[in-house]
Amino acid sequence: MEISKTNQEKSLDVSKKIADWLCSIQAAPVGEYYPPVGYFPWMVCPDGKEWAAQNWNYAFTVMGLLAAYKTFGDPKYERTAIYAGRYLKSLQILDPFHGDNYGAIREVTPFTPWCYTRDTLSVAWAFLELYRHTNEAEYLERAKLWAEWFLKKGCDEDGWPYWGHEFEPLFPSVKPWPQMSNDIQGSFQGGSLNFLYQLHKTTGEAKWIGEPFIKIADHFIKYIQYPSGFFGHVYRATKKPVDNDPQGGLHRANDDLGSLGLLCAYKVTGNKAYLDSIHKYLKAVFAGQWADGRFEESVACIPVVMNVLHEGKGIIDESVIDNSKIEKALTALFESQSDGRFNARMAGGILEFGYPNKELPQPGGKGFVCARSSCYALSVLPKLSGKCRDYLTV
């Protein structure tokens, strides 16, 4: 994969604007009596509406801002990442009254009585990256505590992670949410491989890439990858594709870092079946590219695809790579950055669905900036420019 000099420079410009946006919308400390230090909204809309971030949004904010700090050297990026990490620490269950859920992580606030397993894995991954950055042993211990809970309670009889968990009775106001589809094996769980691999790299402990790791990788390519090449949800009982995706196709071209996980599995085992699976996925992604450069409606998949291509350099079959299509996808991502003309708090964030700045979306529409596309881009774009290569790696 070759990136033009122009797009390398543009990647840095877009990255800096994303990092500045994240810093601008985070709740900064104003005193010891201010509860939401580190909090930020993960979606900001043109009409002023904002949506509270879930734990995984903070996790990828941590990674993206640490990448920005290493790229640009501005201490506010590091400081904002640390604040987000402190917020995440408040979500982990470490009191003695929760038995087998000790070490688990709540979804949104210290009072949320449930979690999505894949989301909380991202938090543990962020703890791992914070440990690598600060050398504070607490972060590594927190990551390992979660990993122990994950291997003990987080997976079904196939070794595939459960969709989610309830720790206590739900608040009546949230039903029928959360979307706890434990009869389905979610395709997004393939990204679990990344965290376990990175935990092994950090600790040197073989158990993190042992049988549970291999079971996830093998299940991913045997049952979760559809004949089309894309990964998709299946019913746990039958392993048949779901009739109606409860996530509306969210994890299609955006495989939630599952293909990156397969690269990790290949690194561990040398099993070329994992590479074959990645090639099928990439062929499907590029075959479906839109005329405007996007791979699907959401632009969040663009940095995900760029990342696996970058990390797989020298490993992935060059025949699945088309540099002209790569440059076109990057241009679509760049053009999705909000200039804040409709809402100043959107400036620098990535418009999730690529709405052009010149069009004011209808109220309640899709013209919002989002931490998903923004933080994925912030973790990946610096490495495409030859700068920080420390995050979302193999």
How is the secondary structure organized here?
Blueprint: H1 5-25, E1 41-44, E2 50-52, H2 55-72, H3 75-89, E3 114-116, H4 117-134, H5 137-153, E4 164-166, E5 184-185, H6 192-203, H7 211-224, E6 234-235, H8 258-269, H9 272-287, H10 301-311, H11 323-334, E7 369-370, H12 371-384
Number of strands: 7
Helix-and-strand structural type: mainly alpha
Largest sheet: 3 strands, antiparallel
Spatial extent as radius of gyration: 20 Å
Instruction: Please provide the ordered H/E string of secondary-structure elements.
Output: HEEHHEHHEEHHEHHHHEH
Going across the major beta sheet, what is the strand order? 2-1-7
Number of helices: 12
Describe the protein.
With 394 residues, the chain is mainly alpha-helical. 46% of the residues lie in helices and 5% in strands. It contains 12 helices and 7 strands. The protein has helices spanning 5-25, 55-72, 75-89, 117-134, 137-153, 192-203, 211-224, 258-269, 272-287, 301-311, 323-334, 371-384; strands at residues 41-44, 50-52, 114-116, 164-166, 184-185, 234-235, 369-370. The strands form 3 sheets. It has a 3-stranded antiparallel sheet. Strands 3-4 form a two-stranded antiparallel ribbon. It has a two-stranded antiparallel sheet with strand order 5-6. Strand 1 and strand 2 form a beta hairpin. Helix 1 (5-25) crosses helix 2, helix 1 packs across helix 12 (371-384) and helix 2 runs parallel beside helix 12 (371-384).
